[in-house]
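Work Package 3 (structural annotation) set out to generate three-dimensional models for the target panel prioritized at the project kickoff. During this period the team completed the workflow that converts sequence records into C-alpha cells, so that structures can be stored uniformly alongside our sequence database. As a representative example, we reproduce one entry of 123 residues exactly as it appears in the project archive.
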Amino acid sequence: MRFKFFILIGLFITLYGCNDDETQLKIEGEYTGTFERNGNTSGVELSLQNGTFSGQSETVKFPAICSGTYMVTNSAITFTNECPWTAEFDWSLILNGEWDYEYDNGTLIMTNSTGDKYILEKQ
C-alpha cells in the first residue's frame, strides 16, 4: 500500500513539474508593450529565453529592467535581477520578485502585489 502511495506522489510531482516547464516554454520569446504604475506608463521591451531575461524601457529606470533569471510556476513568474543599480531612484521599479501573470494568444500580462502592471505582446 505504501509503495502505491509513493508512486502516486511521484506521478503528481512529475506532472506538476511538466506543467511549469511547458508554461515556461510557451511564454519564452521577445515582447514589446507597456509598463504602468499609478496611471504613468512607459514602453518596454522584454526577452524571456531559457530561464533568463533581459530588457529595457523607453523611460530611464521606469521601470528598471536589466537582466537576470526567471522561474515560472502555475500562476507566477519570479524574477531575480542580477544587475547592480545606483541609489538615486525607487528600487521598487526594478523588475524583480514575484509577479502574477496571465498568458493568452501571445499576450503576457504581469501584475505585482503593489499594482504595477506589464502588458506585453509576443513579437
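The chain has a mean pLDDT of 87.
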